[in-house]
Design goal:
Elements (H helix, E strand, L loop, with lengths): L9 H14 L8 E2 L1 H8 L3 H13 L3 E4 L3 E4 L4 H24 L4 H15 L5 H17 L4 H22 L7 H16 L3 H22 L1
Antiparallel strand pairs: 1-3, 2-3
Amino acid sequence: MIQLDVPKTKKNLIYETLKARIVRNEFRPLEYLNEKELAYQMGTSKTPIREALQELGRNRFVTIIPNKGCFVTNISLDDIREIFELRQIYECAAVRVAAQRQGNGELVALLKQYEEKVSKESNSVQERLLAGYQIHSAIVQAMGNSRLYEAYANLQDHIVRVRIYFMQRYLHHRVTESEEEHRAIIEAILRGDPEGAEEALREHLAHALEFIRQHI
């Protein structure tokens, strides 16, 4: 994906900082975000804070309610279901292409490294979950479609937010099962089986969504 080296404005930097804190769940779902306090914390005026919050609202990270203020968007089952529906669209298309090509060199190397990462006893649950997340991202990126990956990249932030939110509570219970599902996807890609890869991915996403549905 070609990236232009465009200087970031103060609003852009504030946007990225606030978004990162929301994604990492440092700002909790439904938490009130006070413009004045944020401006003080970040050493700036309220104008770039307000502009950043408006952009976060357009991208569904916050909800701005007239006469009440700005609140971190809740993580509801409907939101999660929509995210998973989009994941199916993007990832299933990408995994078929990856399997047809049996992966490019970079993707094959990453897929093979996955087993090493998840088999290390020293790795934490968070590290093992991150390794799985990187697999999904790499499969989409390996498709070589910059427009598709740009759209997926915006979705990724919401995916990570959901992962971190549930990881802090329940996802450690699903790590081993998830790793087995990733292995099935990887094996299908490496043997050049598009149908098998897509089926394995769909089953993985369905199991993950059902697990979250049971624990939300």
